[in-house]
Design goal:
mainly alpha
């Protein structure tokens, strides 16, 4: 059974910019609760919406993060 998303998790996701969302997505450890169950579904949908709304900002943030973590 999936754990429901907490108010704090939703608030963080809703207030995060593309870079913060992508950074967490790319660097979180396996099993991070932010990416499981209803929270994970919300997170991935929210991030996809940001990507679709502003693909250039998404790509720029993605490239920046990948340069930093290599």
């Amino acid at each position: 059974m999936s754990t429901p998303m907490t108010v704090d998790e939703k608030k963080w996701i809703d207030e995060a910019d593309i870079e913060a969302l992508l950074r967490k997505w790319r660097t979180a450890p396996i099993g991070d609760p932010m990416f499981e169950g209803s929270t994970g579904q919300y997170y991935s949908g929210f991030l996809a919406g940001k990507r679709d709304k502003d693909p250039a900002a998404y790509t720029a943030a993605s490239k920046k993060i990948m340069r930093e973590i290599r």
